[in-house]
Amino acid sequence: MEYSAGEPRTSTTVGNVAEPNGRLSRQDRGGSVLGQVGGRAPAPNTAGAEVVLQAVDFHLHYPGMHALKGISLEVPASQITAVIGPSGCGKSTFLRSLNRMNDRIPGITTLGRVLFRGLDIYGPSVDPVALRRRIGMVFQRPVVFPMSIFENVAYGARIHRLDRTSAGMWARVERCLGDAGLWDEVKDRLRQPAGDLSGGQQQRLVIARALAVDPEVILLDEPTSAIDPVATGRIEDTLVRLAERFTIVIVTHNLQQAARVSQRTVFFLGGQLVEVGPTEEVFSRPRDQRTEAYLTGRFG
Amino acid sequence: MRTPVRRRVGNTVMVTLAWLAVGVALFPLLDMALLVTRHALPALRWHVLTTVTQGLSGGVANAIAGSLLLVGLAAAMAIPVGVLGGTYVAERRGGAFVRGVRLAADVLAGVPSIAVGYFGYIALVQALGWGFSALAGSLALALLMLPYVVRTTDYAVSAVSDDLREASLALGADHTTTVRRVVLRAALPGILTGVMLGTGVAVGETAPLIYTASWSSFMPTAHLTHSPVAYLTYVVWTYIDQPFASAHALAYAAAFLLMVAVLALNVAARWAIRQRSSGGGGA
To answer: What domains, with CATH codes, occur in chain A?
Structure first.
């Protein structure tokens, strides 16, 4: 698939420059990262926060459809960024552009850049397979693999050979299930098929599975839209806890969810980014009247 | 309120017709199964299973061993090729090559088995000089099995939800790893079904073996070429025409064994399908 790199039209505002030695090449898969995020205190807004992901005038075309029209956005580290907007506004497409999941769709073209720690992920030296290990993704419907609970979590770590010993693997599985708030519920039945879990449990298992490959960023595409309210609450609690150590971007239809969990909110409409700011401000004093119209339920 | 009566009459007529059709379809099967079983049970003695044929009497041990050898070798050839080929075709998703392979598999499935036998005779027995042999016979059987295995694997792999592939890719797994560790696992019951149905077809074939394996009154040997092999369908086909009760008894015994083998394979295939619907969620 070909990507037109394009001229960054807003390049003067970009602080980071893509490193010439793309460290997302295949050789680097299990190795050092471009600088870990962990351990930083969560910053309330972008001011001073480290930028992990940055879209720069990013366009995406499906065959016959201009789906993303010049998106520019900075995603700060160790925060939850919520992306809201009506159906078909491009928010899921944008999310899938951040770890190149859209590569699978035939006929798409992109223009502009998406920088991950300063490196253009659409650059020629970037291996999307290695990229996706660093930028994990959780989908709308909980999709567990047809294997045991333990093997679901261990899957990524096994294929990337992250643990040499079985003790290490056990520790990893326990840690990730704990981080996802699922350990106490499944610790006695790790060898049972993951398909036996409830929908909410399956989605937390999927989150644990994503954590197990030591990602820096976790993208979530409407992770609770197929889940009941109680299970949704558990997942939200999990996300808030995880935001201390991971950078999280969540696409959601649920405005209350965005208000509950996120520090920053982004509003998409018709393939364009209409407004971005601290969640409190976007919800209480939206600057754009289209944002206000959406938040007050006049469309969407 | 005239319609309910008309509807009830129409309903009764249609249900009756449906039951009649079921009866017409099932009668020959049940009749044949009963006939074979009735004649085979008195003939099935222990020595029939343990001794080789002597002229038109004796046992069918050589044919049982030969059938197992031929079908085993055919499965060993057709299953790896068919599963890999079917998986490739399903994962490639479209394109001229994929359409070509699917067409070829469908055509091969429609080729009369006697034509495959004749091809085996000319190409394998004569041109390659293998003689009447287990190798020539099993290769001919493998050709008949192959399209079943390819197409059922193709269907099973294509039916695996794309969500499952995306979930694996999102963890930084490459396509090959995803197929090997997730997709094939989810498709396994469907693949097993095709493998067992294909094997059932191979067990019941006569025509491709007549020209390639020929017949032997001895137990099969380790020589895979230049050594004719016995098989059960030959006993049915030939001995039923002989004017001797001992020959008829052997023919029915062989037919009964074949029926049981095919039934067992079908039951196993159904069991595999049930595993798909109950176990392994997410697929």
So the answer is: 9-295 (3.40.50.300)
